[in-house]
Structure formats: structure tokens, C-alpha cells
Write a structure and sequence with these properties.
Number of helices of chain B: 0
Helix content of chain A: under 10%
Shape of chain A: globular
Strand content of chain A: over 45%
Radius of gyration of chain B: 13 Å
Oligomer: heterodimer
Strand content of chain B: over 45%
Number of strands of chain A: 11
Number of helices of chain A: 0
Chain lengths: 114, 112
């Protein structure tokens, strides 16, 4: 049972380049989330997907797009990377609403934008 | 955006000693409080989810209490061990939905 997996683990981009971060979960969870983590700050929610076919903005959605490809997969796309998007990105999933259940996190993707 | 604060930012504990630290959240907007343990180079792992005022939860040597009326939760580590070294995150829901607001964490270092 792999839980939540993320690819890539590390990426370096130049300003203006695009990339997609992949996330998959094998726990049959309905809800999936993308967070970013910056030094001295808590995890901040970028986007979430309550169920297959739905996505909603979180706290810091600007500069990102997401796709809930199916129940297992939730991808995060940076269309034109900026240095301010240098961060560690975590994907998470939960069975139901975050108010009722814990979230299970992936190993993270470290992104450096030059 | 919910203002969730944790204190202290970091602390050092001697092996065998007990410690505790705080998570504060707006008491006027509360639905659930989560605690996560985050070891370096790993993913955050869930410890507790608490919803009721007065809730107390325990997992091994780690326990947590919740006061929703005054807006705080304490996490306790009894008899700290080096493997307890980690960053402990709390997160709160202001409503019954999908958005968790995380604090910046308390980093605990246990010295042998």
C-alpha cells in the first residue's frame, strides 16, 4: 500500500517555464489537496478537490491550475513559473471533509525556480 | 484565512523530561483541530483530530487537550525520547468543510 505518491521529488525550473506536479493515492479517498510549505510558515492550501470532477481554490491559488484526472490522481500545474513559487509542495488526501478526518500526505516535491 | 498560532516556535528537551506546547485558534470559528507530527525529510503524519470542548486524546507518550471556548490546544510529550524530535503542526477548521489552516509548527529537539 503506497499511500500518497508524488512525482517528481525535486525539480529546478527557469522563470517562465511550465511544469506539472503529479499526485496519486491508492486509498480510495474522495478528497485531495495541494499545499505549499515555506520557511517559517505553515502549510498553505493551494487548491483542493472534494470529489472526482470538482476543484476549488484554497488560500493561495494564484499562478496555479489543477486537474482531478480521476479519483486517484490530482495534478498541479505551474503555467509560467516565478521565483516566488520556489517551495516544497505537498499533496494530501482524505476520505471525507478535512473537518472530520485526518489527511494523509505525500513525500513532497521540492521546487526551485531560478 | 484563519489565524492559527503555535508557541513556542522551537524548544529543546532533555531525554526523559516531559514537555508541552500550545496551539491557539479563534474560538469564534471552530469546527475541528488537527495535530500532525512532521519528521525531517518525511511527510506530516496525523496524530489527532479533536472536535469537542474538553476532548483529550492519547497516543503512546503523546497526548493532547482541547479548549474550544478559549481557543487553544495543548500537546504533551511525556518522558521525551530522541525519536520524538520533530516539528509538531496543528491545524484548524473554521467550518465543516475541506479547508485546514495550519500553524507554523513547534520544532522539538530531544537531547540525549
Amino acid at each position: 500500500n503506497a499511500g500518497v505518491t508524488q512525482t517528481p521529488k525535486f525539480q529546478v525550473l527557469k522563470t517562465g517555464q511550465s511544469m506539472t506536479l503529479q499526485c496519486a493515492q491508492d486509498m480510495n479517498h474522495n478528497s485531495m489537496y495541494w499545499y505549499r510549505q515555506d520557511p517559517g510558515m505553515g502549510l498553505r492550501l493551494i487548491y483542493y478537490s472534494a470529489s472526482e470532477g470538482t476543484t476549488d481554490k484554497g488560500e493561495v491559488p494564484n499562478g496555479y491550475n489543477v486537474s482531478r484526472l480521476n479519483k486517484r490522481e490530482f495534478s498541479l500545474r505551474l503555467e509560467s513559473a516565478a521565483p516566488s513559487q520556489t517551495s516544497v509542495y505537498f499533496c494530501a488526501s482524505s476520505g471525507e471533509r478535512a473537518s472530520q478526518e485526518t489527511q494523509y500526505f505525500g513525500p513532497g516535491t521540492r521546487l526551485l525556480v531560478l | 484565512i484563519l489565524n492559527v498560532e503555535q508557541s513556542p516556535q522551537s524548544l529543546h528537551v532533555q531525554e526523559g523530561d516531559s514537555t508541552n506546547f500550545t496551539c491557539s485558534f479563534p474560538s469564534s470559528n471552530f469546527y475541528a483541530l488537527h495535530w500532525y507530527r512532521w519528521e525531517t525529510a518525511k511527510s506530516p503524519e496525523a496524530l489527532f483530530v479533536m472536535t469537542l470542548n474538553g476532548d483529550e486524546k492519547k497516543k503512546g507518550r503523546i497526548s493532547a487537550t482541547l479548549n474550544t471556548k478559549e481557543g487553544y490546544s495543548y500537546l504533551y510529550i511525556k518522558g521525551s525520547q530522541p525519536e520524538d524530535s520533530a516539528t509538531y503542526l496543528c491545524a484548524s477548521n473554521p467550518s465543516d468543510d475541506y479547508k485546514l489552516s495550519f500553524g507554523a509548527g513547534t520544532t522539538v529537539t530531544v537531547r540525549a
